[in-house]
Write a structure and sequence with these properties.
Elements: H1 2-24, H2 38-52, E1 57-59, E2 64-69, E3 74-79, E4 88-97, E5 100-109, H3 113-137
């Protein structure tokens, strides 16, 4: 009977882990278009800070706060007041497509599309540098 009890404990542990992980997950692409309302930005930012605040890294000189969802591999970069593209955010994730490393990226902005486009482009360039670095390692 003892193996059965251990199996039950293991199953219960896995269920708790999956429920906890799912409840802390954020959507990669929560909105269908990049232009969102201030309320949508605030709501998602609050949800992200609530669920991922333990991972927060603040870059005051860049007016950026990064939150990392390690379970799903999502990196959220939110602009702070003082950033030209504020309020906006960019989310990235590394994916493997047929043995090739790729980085998917989406972003959202409230007001300044031009500044957001520059920020988005900067992250695309960082993505290319990361991909080169990762591919050179392999």
């Amino acid at each position: 009977m003892k193996p059965f009890i251990n199996l039950q404990r293991l199953s219960l542990g896995l269920i708790i882990f999956c429920v906890a992980s799912a409840s802390s997950a954020l959507e990669f692409m929560p909105y269908p278009v990049a232009k969102i309302s201030l309320e949508q930005w605030e709501s998602f930012y609050i949800e992200a800070k609530t669920k991922l605040g333990h991972s927060q890294r603040t870059y005051n000189d860049q007016y950026i706060v990064v939150l990392i969802d390690t379970f799903n591999g999502h990196h959220y970069a939110f602009t702070l007041p003082g950033h030209a593209a504020h309020p906006s955010w960019i989310v990235r994730r590394i994916v493997n497509r047929d043995g090739e490393i790729d980085i998917q990226q989406v972003g959202y902005y409230v007001n300044n599309e031009s500044s957001f486009t520059q920020l988005f482009q900067t992250y695309l360039e960082l993505n290319e540098n990361m991909k080169s670095s990762l591919q050179n390692r392999n």
